[in-house]
Design a protein that fits this description.
The chain is an alpha+beta fold. The protein has 2 domains: 4-78 and 305-366, Thiol Ester Dehydrase, Chain A (Roll); 83-254, 2-Layer Sandwich (Alpha-Beta Plaits), CATH 3.30.70. The protein has 7 helices and 13 strands. The strands form 3 sheets. Strands 1-2-11-12-13-10 form a 6-stranded antiparallel beta sheet, covered by helices on one side. A 5-stranded antiparallel beta sheet has the order 8-5-7-6-9, with helices on both faces. A hairpin with a 3-residue loop joins strand 1 and strand 2. The longest helix has 20 residues, at 120-139. The radius of gyration is 24 Å and the shape is elongated.
């Protein structure tokens, strides 16, 4: 069973116009959710004072939001268990001049880059600000706050990523031979030492979202990737010397919302950098370009995400009243697809008694 944070990670609705609390079942064409009706909800102030009833249109909306989650294709109930979110298992290890948060079987978002991918003066300025944040916490003899950890991440995902996407440096992974070396290294121990969830090999950097297997440490996994690929890429290019920047950026993923965000970020990175038909990107269950036969058309990068939007109610039948304290059981099934439009049937019941049946259309639009 999911929770409210999972729901919010899938659809954009928020209180007071969010009418789903959790997902309890989910399949390819069917989903079941729940919603507890609360007495302090704003519509009860006028519908009706002294005898509050939940408006029928909001019962329909609960079905629409449930249908939107089904249409999104995100199966929260089948998502990996993110043990990294268990704070008691988290350890802080120092490698170089910055701390790294690790957990047994933790899930991580990791980035590393070529040694010449960012001008030295800019790289040092970013490093200095990151170190200042850490030293301030040390001086006050406390751990980093969530806002400080978020700032450390922002220095990477906003400021540094813009520089990386600008294509500074030699960009060795523009050479398919090097990109293939890196992709194959990521995939080699997938399912054995770690589970890959998303990855992208960019011209001058690499993003990976993965979950470590029991007994496999973050540092060991990343070191193996960087060491093997540096030697092989130097051999392929006929060069010597430093290939990767020593320091890597890594983030211990704390919850499902972060997980979904990092996977999306990783898969969309080629498009964000203006790379069209970039083949060196993949996710769990996908056959990557590095495993396709020579001469075959490379994999198309992930399309721009699309969001579900209600377009029309076809039919609604109300058979009962809903009051504060009632627990809604919301079931939605997909009936047929017409292009980008999906016809769905929704049913809302309370204590086993059906109070609403609705047939509606949900369509997809560009995010």
């Amino acid at each position: 069973m999911s929770d409210l944070d999972d729901v919010k990670s899938i659809i954009p609705h928020r209180e007071p116009f969010l009418f789903v609390d959790r997902i309890i079942e989910q399949g390819e064409s069917r989903i079941v959710t729940e919603r507890t009706v609360r007495a302090d909800e704003p519509h009860f102030q006028g519908h009706y004072p002294g005898s509050p009833l939940m408006p029928g249109v909001l019962l329909c909306e609960a079905c629409f939001q449930t249908g939107a989650m089904l249409l999104s294709g995100v199966d929260i109930l089948s998502a990996p268990v993110l043990r990294a979110s268990r704070p008691q298992s988290v350890q802080i290890r120092w490698r170089g001049r910055l701390p790294h948060w690790e957990a047994e079987e933790g899930t991580y978002f990791v980035t590393w880059r070529l040694a010449d991918s960012v001008p030295n003066e800019v790289s040092e300025a970013i490093r200095a600000e990151r170190e200042d944040i850490v030293k301030t916490a040390e001086h006050l003899k406390r751990t980093l706050t969530d806002s400080e950890m978020d700032r450390l991440e922002q220095l990477h995902t906003v400021r540094l990523e813009e520089l990386l996407n600008a294509g500074h440096g030699a960009c060795y992974m523009k050479d398919d031979r090097c990109a293939r070396v890196v992709a194959d290294a990521l995939l080699h121990f997938d399912g054995e030492r770690y589970d890959l969830h998303a990855w992208s090999v960019m011209p001058n950097h690499v993003h990976v979202v993965f979950q470590a297997k029991a007994g496999q440490g973050l540092a060991q996994i990343v070191h193996a990737w960087k060491s093997l690929t540096a030697k092989e890429c130097n051999r392929v290019l006929g060069r010597s010397g430093t290939f990767w920047m020593d320091e890597s950026f890594d983030r211990l993923v704390r919850d499902e919302t972060e997980f979904n965000r990092y996977v999306d970020y990783t898969l969309r990175n080629p498009a964000a950098a203006g790379l069209e038909d970039w083949p060196w990107v993949g996710c769990a269950g996908e056959t990557p370009a590095s495993q396709k036969a020579a001469g075959e058309t490379p994999a198309t990068p992930p399309a721009t995400p699309r969001k579900p939007v209600l377009t029309r109610i076809l039919e609604a039948k109300f058979r009962g009243m809903v009051r504060p304290g009632d627990s809604l059981h919301i079931e939605v099934e997909q009936e047929e697809k017409m292009g980008d439009a999906h016809v769905m049937n929704g049913k809302v019941s309370v204590a086993g008694k059906n109070v609403l049946r609705v047939k509606f259309i949900v369509a997809l639009i560009e995010a």
